[in-house]
Amino acid sequence: MKVFLLTFFAVICLHLQMNACTASDADDIYISSMTVQGTDNVVLCNSSTTDITLSGGIMVVDSDPSNVETLADITIPALGCVTLIQDIDFDFGFSAGNGDGFTLSCADGTVIATKSFGPTNDVVIFCADPPQVCNPADAASVYISKVFHSTGDDRVLVCNSSSLPVVLAGTTLADGGNSSMLGNAVIIAPMSCVTLTRGIDFAFGLGDDDSFTIDCGGTIFDSVTYDQSASGEDCFVAADAPAGPCDPTASVYISTVFADEGTDRVVVCNETGQTVSLDGAQVSDASNTETIFGLSIPPFSCITLTRNVDFTFGLGTTDEFSISCGGTVYDMESWDDGQLVDGEFFVAAAPVAPATGIPTMGEWGLMCLTFLLMIVGVVRLKETEQQLAYQKI
């Protein structure tokens, strides 16, 4: 019996020790807001991708050193928040009129989170935004467009078909046998896509014959299964990406093409005085077509589209490249081996913003009229001042 009791208490103590707060919790736990009138409460949030359980070692303290209370075991979910409520989690109240404070500390005195405030009439004191996390209601808008599988460079293109932003943070990403929570603050803009990358957004690797699933709190956003070895393709295409806000009537042209063994790139230019969006535009070579997202070209400027960043297909010594929007081709260039000079195919010079020219006769006339009116105004003002001076005399 003694052995059993000793074992039981040892297990209990070990459990409490495992769940007791540690100094490292200060990196992840923060105060989001404090309600300091009525029923006081404190919102604690967890910025990490793992649940954090805080045992009774956590102390809840306001600005009065005598108000020291022990917090019962509480778990703050990954990328989530909990609310500590007066008369449930603690007994003391805040003094909004005089200013007060709130501190969370481990039993060893390590401060986990703290916030003090001066006299205030505010009911709620906002300290930091809670983590942005996925919403299961967005399941109808999120889909997987492409899966790219290559050694050490696995990535997945995920798209949003709605007219509102979609948060992916907090989703669970999984393949056939591994999963991890997406902790990065990834948001997909309306009618756009983002690329989730191995080593940045998920830790597991993708195989030739595999799957990829995006789950939000038990609600599947999308899931695809593929066999790349059978298709022989570099990427699995589940669905076309949504058309972005690029303008088919924009003035975009190709300036230079570099076919350079793995670092292929194309310089694309805008010859107008307005910024041109390429979000949703398509680029192609002789046999591949892909959509680019989130890019724009400043006025009278150029940007460089790079292989494995903006497109995945490779350019050959005899090939072509086109860029289009909504079926309208902005520009298309083709070349053969004889036209490449050190891997470079020069097409057109970069645009130059118009220089400020000499004023026209009409502009000179307006300038002269402006000066004349100014002179007349000054003369009349002087006359008025002189008349007033004579009246005083």
Folded structure, characterized:
- The protein is built from 3 helices and 30 strands.
- It has 393 residues and is mainly β.
- The N and C termini lie far apart (120 Å).
- The protein has a 4-stranded antiparallel beta sheet, with no helix packed on it. It has a 4-stranded antiparallel beta sheet with strand order 5-4-8-9, with no helix packed on it. A 4-stranded antiparallel beta sheet has the order 17-12-11-20, with no helix packed on it.
- A hairpin with a 6-residue loop joins strand 21 (252-258) and strand 22 (265-270).
In the predicted model, the low-confidence regions spanning at least 5 consecutive residues are 1-18
Query: Which of globular, elongated, flat, extended, rod-shaped describes the shape?
Result: flat
Q: What oligomeric assembly is this protein in?
A: single chain
Helix amount, in percent? 10-25%
Average pLDDT score? 82
- Strand order, largest beta sheet: 7-2-1-10
Kindly name the structural category: mainly beta
Q: Would you kindly provide a brief summary of this structure?
A:
By secondary structure, the chain is mainly beta. The chain is built from three helices and 30 strands.
